[in-house]
Septin-5 (Manacus vitellinus), 321 residues
Amino acid sequence: YVGFATLPNQVHRKSVKKGFDFTLMVAGESGLGKSTLVNSLFLTDLYKDRKLLNAEERINQTVEIVKHTVDIEEKGVKLKLTIVDTPGFGDAVNNTECWKPITDYIDQQFEQYFRDESGLNRKNIQDNRVHCCLYFISPFGHGLRPVDVEFMKALHEKVNIVPLIAKADCLIPSEIRKLKERIREEIDKFGIKVYQFPECDSDEDEEFKQQDRELKESAPFAVIGSNTVVEAKGQRVRGRLYPWGIVEVENQAHCDFVKLRNMLIRTHMHDLKDVTCDVHYENYRAQCIQQMTRSLSDSLLCLVQLRRMQEMLQKMQQQMQ
Ligand code: GDP
């Protein structure tokens, strides 16, 4: 026994000491329950100071990017969670290119990271790259709206998109099944690349494989959010109390909230970060380097031409003398 079997423990201890960070973006038309869902997911009130605009104020409103950061701790593990909200998306009368501020924001974070990484002090780089974007789809339509298609197509090469059917309590189970099928078909038809759950390892146990299958089959998750705790069958649960009954956020028979939370926090957070780093950021980096090389070779070409002209001038001067 040499002792390298302790390597995983060493890595574990170091990561716990350093803490973790995760940046989650939420996007979709206002009123679809984004803030309520985020509060339900992380059991915090991230939107205490939110100011809602009236219809008149929203007419000319441009899409804003608002960041909320909270430090959460669970069993000694620290997580710095950043929520990037996009109020105003899809709210104006004219929504042409309303996703532009969002794509610009994602690019800026990549640019900042690229600059920090190429700088002298690479020790304490702050990673503000967006690891996942929850995109809220209205439950009231017949599938994706043009703005949904355009948004996802503009972002799918830059960020892991997880589409969600918002306010799923507005639909009965058969309607949810139909809407899910339709959205899946449209995602395929329009060539949208949403976040793909990684393949399950063949040596995993059967229970894990079953959970993984169910997760994949449930996408796009139909979710419900609530800021209130109600009493259902003698238990206090997060839910929505209607005159005809209670919708429980964490009841898997009512919606996919638990599946989304497990995926986002318990099973796939690390993969979302890996894909951001290895696929989306690498694409950005490759493009940047290509551009830099191109402009460098252009400058070199200019220099060579300048040198040639200087030589010609010198020759002409000599001939004139
Ligand atoms: P946001 O503008 O997208 O952040 O939406 P909010 O979270 O502010 O929610 C807008 C309204 O929808 C509020 O009245 C919420 O109580 C309600 N709401 C939020 N989530 C749900 C849900 O899952 N189902 C239903 N029926 N209403 C919801």
User: Anything to note?
Assistant: The chain has a mean pLDDT of 86.
